[in-house]
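Good morning,

Both structures are done.
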Amino acid sequence: MVKVLELANKEVLHKVSELYKQVWKSEEHSIKERILKHSLYEGFQGFVILSNEDKLIGFSYGYTSLPGQYYHELLAKEFYSEQYNKWLKDCFEFVELAVNPSFRKQGFGNMLITKLLEEVDNKTAILTTQIDNKPARSLYESLQWKVLKEPFYQNNSKQPYVIMGKELM
């Protein structure tokens, strides 16, 4: 038995920050600040899954993608007008998904994605992931996400990404 909760309080945010560092092998401390900033965006939704022992299994969050937002503008540069109208005009931006390595391949990533998107009113959803992140890409493709652009380089980064989209309506 697990608990699915909204991504909301300081204790949960601390657990999310620790998991983020573990999953991404990062010392980045800004995930808390990014979540707090993004929680003010239109359409924000975020969820965590906790075990019965209150151990963080995973989290996901996103929001409505709107002109003027950093990532919206970054992605808009990658699309022709027709693609922009289809994928970014009425779009939910799926920002983060992380599952504790000891809980992977048990359906929790699928559960977090499904929960996050089930009440979204947007026509499409969009995400980016590293081109070589085969487990993530496999998960998204199994949920009918499709590749929109590959490769995609964020701000002259040498790390190639893929832009994926999903029609919601």
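Second structure follows.
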Amino acid sequence: MTQPTPIAPTPASVTGVILAGGRGERMGGRDKGLVDLAGQPMVRWVMDRLSPQVDRLIISANRHADAYASFGAPVVADTQPGFAGPLAGIAAALSATTTPWILTTPCDCPQLPDDLLQRLSRALQAQGGRLAIAHDGERPQPVFALLHQSLLPDLEAFISAGERKAWIWCQRHHAAVADFSHCARAFTNINTPQEHRLLAATLPTGQLPGMPTPPEDRAS
């Protein structure tokens, strides 16, 4: 039996989840959320962008829990062993949160949109369902997601079956899709030292550029 669509999310009903539980292998094993970028750790850039959009924050991390806790948000670790990927972090956050919705983003995308929740929520209202993801105009971005807590049992079963790919799981639930093609660079993540150097070279200390306003949202 198909479950009814939940009440549309508002900021007060959403926990922001920063996914920082990876190995950082392409960054030489460094914990990417704690890597400095223009004067502050990358996780701080993400927190500053995400916190105005949601009621509270959770950081999903499997290493350096004390360091992450120093930023003032609860820290949760995967319940699945062996660095099982972003879906494991999402499942752990769903288990820990008290809000009906979570909004997820990786820790290595410091330019994430400041209207991420607004546009994902709009997509849910237009397309229905319990899950919405971003699309940058070229490809889906399934770890930039808005999802309802009722999806947790299915997500846990998916992970327990050995599945790891976020996009496959999103397709199972006919995820609503929000268009972010006007700010595709917002989804550029920093996976390698070279990518880190390239972005850092463009930034004044302590500042990131704002996101452009999409044409349909501009005042005429």
